[in-house]
Amino acid sequence: MARRIFRSPLTVLGLFIVLGILIAALFAPVIATHSPTEVDLVSKLEAPSVEHFFGTDEVGRDIFSRIVYGTRISLRIGLLVVLIAFPVGTILGAIAGYMGGRIDQVIMRITDIFLSFPGIILAMSIAAALGPSIENVMLALAATWWPWYTRIVRSSVLSIKHAEFIEASRALGANPFRILFKEVIPNSIAPATIQASLDLGFVILAAAGLSFIGLGAQPPSPEWGAMLSNSREILREAWWAATFPGIAILLTVLGFNLLGDGLNDLLDPKQR
Amino acid sequence: MDALRFIGKRLLLMIPILIGISILTFAISNTIPGDPARLILGPKATPDGLEALREDMGLNDPLYVQYGRYMSGIGQGDLGKSTYSQRPVVDDLLRYSPATIELTMFAMFITLIIGVPFGVISASRKDRIADQFTRIFALIGVAMPAFWLGLLLLLFFYLKLGVLPGSGRLDGGMSPPEYVTGMYTVDALLAGNWSVFYSAFMHLILPGITLAAVTVGMITRMTRSSMLTVLQSDYIRTAFAKGAPENRVLYGHALRNGIMPVITLLGMAFGHALGGSILVEAVFSWPGLGQYAVNAINYLDFPAVMGVTMLIAVMFIIVNLIVDTLYFFIDPRLKHS
Amino acid sequence: MNFKNQWSKLFLFLIIAVLVLAGCQNYSEEAEGTDSPEGTAAEPNENFDADVFNFATNQDIPGLDPHGSAANTTFRVIYLMYDRLVTYEGSSTEPTPMLAESWDISENGLEYTFHLVEDAKFHDGSPVTAEAVQYSFTRAIDVGKSAAGIFSKVIDKDSFEIIDDYTIKITLKEPFAPFISTLGTAFGNIINPALEEDHGDDLGESVLAETEMGSGPYVLESWDRGETMVMKANPDYWGEAPTMETVNIRFITEASTARLMLEKGEIDLIDNTVISPEVLGQMRDTEGIEVVESDGYQIDYMPMNTEKGALADVKVRQAIAHSINYDALLESVYLDQAERIGGAVPKGMFGFSEEAKLYEYDLDKAKELLKEAGHESGLTLEIAISDDSEVRSNTALLLQSDLEKVGVTLNIKTYAWPTFLDLVTSGKHDFGLVSWTPDYPDPDYNLWYFAHSSSKGPGFNLAFYENSKVDSLLEEARTSTDEALREKNYMEIQNIMAEEVPYIFVAQPKLEAPMRTWVKGYELNPMNSWYVPFHKITKEE
Q: How confident is the model over C53-82, as pLDDT tens digits?
């Protein structure tokens, strides 16, 4: 298995990026050279140097340190949203696919409602209704994300529903919920898992987009999207202030994507 | 006949979905703290004026009455009056939606002409340089925050090279063509006005590319994986074994069979682009539904929020219906199942 | 071979793409001159057109009803499509004659007699008469929106007496010293009474949402919502002929894009609220661009909720006032393009107080005051800001870092505007940050809103400040016509407020708008910065 991973250089690249992010998040206080939030007006908008690797922003904060600490925020957003959306979507999808009939109809209509609801409008309304915070942005993102898992899981449940081992458990008179959780879900979860690994990146990207329209992370929190968005006006005078957070987002999404693709190639027998 | 029944059934299914969306939107927008009447009147309002306006807007009625009133209005094709612009929401939507539809369709066009060939190349060269290159290229488009990409494109193509315009839908001073579809490129063609068409088209390019960046990635990935499956199949192997020209096998046989999942995804990509257009519209001052929605939420313009949400949902559903209908006609298996 | 084949296709595609782009070179005819922004000055800019003015703003225009709108972007255009009895010219905040040639005020300050110019015509050719004046103000009150908030205090439908076609007498319900000043606001625009025929069931509000019925130097030519509004010079204007033939108001939502377009010469002037001071500082050095400056009556202030929690204690408020490093704030957030003031009346306006106490930056004193108030162990407070301003969010950041030094943890909460407004007017905030510009140059305006107990909350007394002495001083000054007495009262109010610190007046910023150097004759009005007199501006290369 390891050999197969290393056969694709892109998967290896993805693996390294994700590992790098994890390390940065875990050891942020060790890696960062400055406080991520300390304002230092004397050294505002300084270009990258030995003192400030990635330069400083409009109020003199060290961008390198903010990006390092920002990994924690981004990972938290990505993980929490997926951790809410994934189980909700999976369970609903499995129930819909396995039970079929009216239950399936109802669940899929609700899924359709959330799928066709414009996500950004939902996010904006939730942020306006519940107040601005990164938690509410996560809630909004989770609310728009779960239907995708429902669809994926449902269709893979449909494909194994009549497999022998499931028919066998049913014939033995096992509790339907037991079958659902012990047999159906574990055997149909792979595609959704791949999607989840891709989504870790996409959620971070979506959160950055919401920061652009002023929702989400509150100052002085070093959220990458907010950093990028706040410095976009001075992109030409202080390119470093926008570019490094942008690259951080880019690399993170890229990393999770490459890893997810690698997983996909690995788990999908047809493509070996 | 089958096809008609299929479409009819799907259209009927739209109704519960739209009712669900309307309830959801209504519920959420009414939990937003803030008084629409006060926003309209500003700090100088008199208490009497405020009360009168609240009464006038029906804000004093219980929520279910307000909702009922709204829904019965929809039955008559009336989406209410925007509290911000004082115009019927229908008029506003007719004004703002063509811009978004035009931009999204253009982005979908870019997506297809770049995404599909890239996917095919990538699959046929799996794990070789060409594969790695196209995948990275597609992924960077996906992974780049859209507003950042948009600004960089502007800096390069507008400021530096001066080959593409900076913002809006037409050059300053140019008047839009007569309203037929509201899409400037189409209307200009209908009117035979080439200079307006040229200007409208040039204005589409940068926002179109920015919007397509994400969907190109989606389509490339799907084409690649679908093609990989097809390329493993026996008849393709046979075709290659017989020494048929590679391009004909790839784009003729393989793509025809591998395109189905791509078409399905296109519906989803369209939805994605509709959502993503809010950010892109902001960067390029594109007067579309995204801008309208942001404005509506910022002014607690509930009729407008309801209208724009429902419209986007309807567009999403219809595009997916079209995609599924295509599927129905192309894929013979469905007809008999 | 196959490999090459695929690649050559891709290559071909790229070549075509490049060719297409190259073919578009003529899109911008002086492409070679635009390689560097500096290059544009050397040769004539192809975007220059002496008769067309392109103005960029990032805020949409909701409608065109002078009586129904409270949006500055609406004010900007209706100022030009309508005329008023009086107006403000250039950088002056003294009302000067417009439709009213002259006026007499009775001894008791109640009766105002206006003599109208006789050659003014509405855009449909009908004359502007005394009847139109009566119609306009009556409608303002009937509509019951922003304009009514200003006028219904002092006039009602019985206040008017038409003496002849061009003479009208307005009798106030009680003396109101700033009355003439209010007539120069956008709410005082005179509407064609022909609108009455289209009143419908909403007093013609839906008509004026789309069109104008004024007598001003410009007529509405076309309006593509969310995109461009085009105004054309009124060929029959009764006053001085407008200099600029066409005015395009263009909505450019992204500030960085607007800036690029200004550099290219596609835009002549950007709304002064769009670009942040930091970027303006950078733009000063750009060839072909000038930042026009003016003193402003805008004040950026921080209300402290005197009815809630720790801030109810005046000692805590004073401690906060002592712990802010004002100099650093003005320098880094405003780039020194702002001044600090002690009272609610901006510098330059009648009633400005030189003596109102300015708290010095003194951390020891702040800590001591907090100790006296029993907050030795620290305090956690929240500051609410709206999400639309770089200046406010940076100010909040600096406040956060300043207050931390005296043991006060400040949490920043950014809200969308309607939510913000709801929060601060219902008193759920600790601190807020607000920018405020008076509509007319009288201290009554700011002080009544900020300090009178009847204005608490929705009336914009966001500190929920209440002091009966201040109330009675305000009431006395409002109804008096004795300037000396009024000035004395306003000074006293500001001194009392400086001691009790319901508000900290962080800055009175300069107004700054970036424009092309070829724009001549434009001055920012300190109070009506959204009034851009396009009819007097010229462009010379």
A: 999 998 889 899 999 887 889 999 999 999
- Backbone φ and ψ of A179, nearest 5°: -60, -45
- Percent over 70 (pLDDT), chain B: 96
Which residue among B42, B52, B84 places its CB closest to the CB of C146? B42
Of C491, C504, C139, residue with least CA distance to C304: C504
Q: What is the pLDDT of residue C218?
A: 97
Q: In chain A, pLDDT over 90 holds for what percent of residues?
A: 44
H helix or E strand, kind and range, residue A122: helix A119-130
Is residue C283 within 8 Å of residue B178, measured between CB atoms? no
Q: Is A113:A143 a contact under the CB 8 Å cutoff?
A: no
Average pLDDT of the segment spanning B209-217: 92
Q: At what angle do helices C326-333 and C390-404 cross, to 10 degrees?
A: 150
Token pair belonging to B79: 């989406």
Per-residue pLDDT band at C452 (split at 50, 70, 90): very high
Distance from CA of A209 to the nearest CA of B (A): 7
* Strand C228-233, strand C269-270: pairing: unpaired
Provide the pLDDT for residue A66.
96
Q: How far is it between the farthest Cα atoms of chain C?
A: 101
% of chain B residues with pLDDT over 90: 32
Tokens of B268: 């989803």
Place of tokens 């991520």: A36
**DSSP state string for C214-263:** --SSEEEEEEETTTEEEEEE-TT-SSSPPS-SEEEEEE---HHHHHHHHH
pLDDT per position as a tens digit, C261-283: 999 999 999 999 899 888 898 89
Q: Find which of A68-72, B5-9, B65-69, C355-359 is predicted with most confidence, using mean pLDDT.
A: A68-72
- pTM more than 0.90: no
What residues have CB less than 8 Å from C434, skipping those under 6 apart? C300, C301, C302, C303, C424, C462
Helix axes C363-372, C314-322, angle to 10 degrees: 160
Count CB pairs under 8 A between chains B and C: 190
Match 């000063």 to its residue by tokens. C284
The tokens of A146 are what? 């779960």
A228–chain B nearest CA distance, Å: 8
Phi, psi of C232 (to 5 degrees): -110, 150
In order, the DSSP letters of C320-383 are HHHT--HHHHHHHHSTT-EE--SSSSPTTSTT--SSSPPPP--HHHHHHHHHHTT-TT-EEEEE
Cα three-residue angle C222-C228-C229, rounded to 5 degrees: 40
Asked if A59 has any chain C CB less than 8 Å from its own CB, the reply is yes
Chain C, window 257-316: residues with a beta carbon less than 8 angstroms from a chain A beta carbon: 259, 275-276, 278-279, 282
Are A29 and A222 spatial neighbours (Cβ–Cβ below 8 Å)? no
Among positive and negative, which fits the CA dihedral B153, B156, B158, B159?
positive
Q: Which amino acid is at A169?
A: S
What pLDDT, on a 0 to 100 scale, did the predictor assign at position C29? 39
Name residue, tokens 């306009």: C136
- Torsion of the alpha carbons at B161, B162, B166 and B170, rounded to the nearest 10: -140
By the 8 A CB rule, do B206 and B283 touch?
Answer: no
Assess contact for A254 and A201: CB atoms under 8 A: yes
Q: Which chains touch B (3 or more CB pairs under 8 A)?
A: A, C
Task: Say which DSSP state C515 is in.
Answer: E
Q: How far apart are CA C35 and CA C38, in angstroms?
A: 9
Closest CA to C539 of C521, C514, C513, C512: C521
Distance CA C375, CA C360 (A): 21
Which of A58, A132, A235 is closest, CB to CB, to C414?
A132
